[in-house]
Amino acid sequence: MPVSRRGFLGYAAAGSMAGFIGGLRRALALPPNSGVPQETVLADPGPSCLLRESMAGYESALSSAKVSFRRAGLQRLPHARKIILPASAIADQSKLILVKSRVEGGATVLLESAAGFLSDEEFDFHRRVMISVFGLSLHTSVRLWGPSDTVRNSPYIDYGWPIETKVRDFSRIIPVACRNAEAIAWFDGQPVGARRRVGKGTLVFLGSPLGPHLLASDREAVDWFEAFCVVA
Questions:
Q1: Do 187 and 173 touch, CB atoms closer than 8 A?
Q2: Do 98 and 133 contact (CB within 8 A), yes or no?
Q3: What is the pLDDT of residues 28-67, one digit of tens each?
Q4: 3-class DSSP state for residue 76?
Q5: H and E: helices and strands count for the chain
Q6: Which of 21, 35, 111, 199 is the most exposed place for a label (fewest CB within 10 A)?
């Protein structure tokens, strides 16, 4: 069940944070916390992070929201309640299998894709690995700038979970097929974000980079991410 941005802010203003979190969890029919560690990990994809400003954006947003977190590399990815992978274009199957194992163990993993910035050959390989490991079928990237560097009309991403909001984007996005997943974000009616249960946990795929907007303190992007931190 999505919550509108206005509703989210209203919940936050209505009472204590503890009561707000509990109420939002009940409103969204969220399961109780599992036995995985109650911490957030900001995972650095290393060379596979194609937008370093995205990494900085999530770090800034977590700090501003007063969410306790630690950074980690993919080589030694710890178990955690939430794991965030900014601007990732991982093509190493073993690393994605490790990420999948954390999801299966009960983590919510936010995988923000920057695959739209890969070459055609690199993207094809990355797409095959994503299908193999997570069963997510990615479509060819969509460039939100025209051939003469003119902006397409209304380049907004419409988010429907965990809150309903719009975030303007001028980059490159990755549409995703949602045959075995729930669509959570759309561009021009086409899914560009998905949520899928994997084992005991949940994979949240974002085909539109959110981190750079967090770094710029974009209000709608910040609201979406803070809501995600509450419900994940």
A1: yes
A2: no
A3: 444 444 455 679 999 999 999 999 999 999 999 999 999 9
A4: coil
A5: 7, 14
A6: 35
Task: Output the six-digit token pair for 66.
Answer: 């007063």
Q: Look at residues 220, 217, 202 and name the one whose alpha carbon lies nearest to residue 84.
A: 202
Q: How far apart are CA 82 and CA 110, in angstroms?
A: 8
Asked whether 198 and 100 are in contact (CB, 8 A), the reply is yes
185 HSE (CA, 13 A, CB side): 28
> How far is it, in rounded angstroms, from Cα 99 to Cα 93?
10
The fold adopted by the segment(s) 40-231 is: Rossmann fold (3.40.50)
Domain boundaries, the chain: 40-231
**Residue 162 corresponds to which tokens in the numbers above?**
């965990």
Q: What is the pLDDT of residue 144?
A: 83
Maximum CA extent, the chain: 52
| The two three-digit tokens of residue 61, written as one number | 């947003």
Residue (of 195, 211, 192) closest to 203 by Cα position: 195
- Regarding beta strands 40-44 and 82-88, do their DSSP bridges make them parallel or antiparallel, or are they unpaired? parallel
pLDDT at 11: 42
Residues 6+ apart with CB under 8 A from 204: 108, 109, 110, 111, 184, 193, 194, 195, 228, 232
CA separation for the pair 28, 191 (Å, rounded) = 21
Q: What amino acid is encoded at 193 in this protein?
A: G
List the chain residues with pLDDT less than 70. 1-37, 145-154
Count the neighbouring beta carbons within 10 Å of the beta carbon of residue 16.
8
